[in-house]
Design a protein that fits this description.
The chain is α+β, with helices and mostly antiparallel strands and 264 residues long. The chain has seven helices and twelve strands.
């Protein structure tokens, strides 16, 4: 499947969806119960998927689609092996969108041979299109990305996240709490921002210096992982091992900062 000539079409399809949601942003009432919330989230998925399928069908007629359901822990452990397929996290940060606050994006990944080969994250509010192609590089509005060159931990911005994996039968909550404490002791600035993919893209762009998450969250990560990796960031587990699809933790930063954090 030829990808290079189709990149402008993919980006335009993503921009179309994001622009449509931007027009409706803050125009509907904030959901007040679980039924309204569930229906609103389902509507977002339907709108995204139907629009993208229609706009990309001509150039990718044989590529199936998979919804990246971050609540489905088991499906996040292994990629589908076989033909190319689209992995669509319709709106990363959909809760923020429905709550009328910033921090929502449209994400899409093309998976080839079990690995992301192309990903895009569009932030309609900032009009910023982050995208990456495996082996080619990462870009924001077609400008190459590069991680920050900071060496002083006291001026670095570190972010932490958590996902939807069941934490009732393990000590994940304790591990996350200990991790946040360690961040506060290590870095000058610590935040929890969301959405996940955009934060990883920000590492690639040098806006965020360090990202960590103790929890399986492949679908929320995967678009941003390719962008950060192609920009030059290290993609590791919290133990410092190379991250692989299905790893139950993620640490993304520059090589020098990873060494300082892991060896302190």
């Amino acid at each position: 499947m030829e990808l290079n000539n189709s990149i402008p079409i993919i980006l335009e399809a993503i921009r179309k969806v994001g622009t449509g949601f931007l027009k409706d942003y803050k125009q509907k009432a904030i959901p007040e119960n679980i039924e309204e919330l569930t229906a609103s989230l389902a509507a977002i998925d339907t709108i995204c998927l139907s629009s993208l399928k229609a706009d990309l069908a001509k150039n990718f007629p044989n590529a199936p689609w998979q919804i990246g359901d971050e609540f489905d822990t088991e499906s996040q452990r292994n990629p589908v092996i076989g033909s190319d397929y689209w992995l669509c996290d319709a709106m990363d940060g959909a809760i923020q969108y429905l709550q009328h606050i910033a921090g929502w994006t449209i994400n899409l990944v093309l998976v080839r041979d079990g690995q992301p080969c192309f990903s895009v994250i569009f932030d309609p509010l900032a009009n910023e299109m982050f995208w990456a192609q495996a082996g080619v590089g990462a870009f924001m509005n077609n400008k190459p990305l590069m991680p920050a060159k900071k060496t002083d931990l006291s001026v670095m911005l570190a972010v932490f996240e958590y996902g939807h994996e069941d934490k009732s039968t393990n000590n994940l909550n304790d591990i996350i709490g200990e991790s946040v404490t360690e961040l506060i002791k290590t870095f000058g600035i610590v935040r929890n921002y969301g959405p996940h993919g955009l934060q990883l893209a920000y590492v690639g762009a040098g806006r965020i210096d360090f990202f960590i998450q103790h929890d399986l969250d492949t679908y929320n990560w995967i678009a941003g992982i390719l962008i950060a990796k192609e920009a030059g960031a290290e993609i590791l587990t919290t133990a410092g091992n190379p991250w692989q699809w299905g790893s139950d933790s993620l640490l993304v930063t520059t090589k020098s900062t990873a060494i300082k954090f892991l060896n302190k």
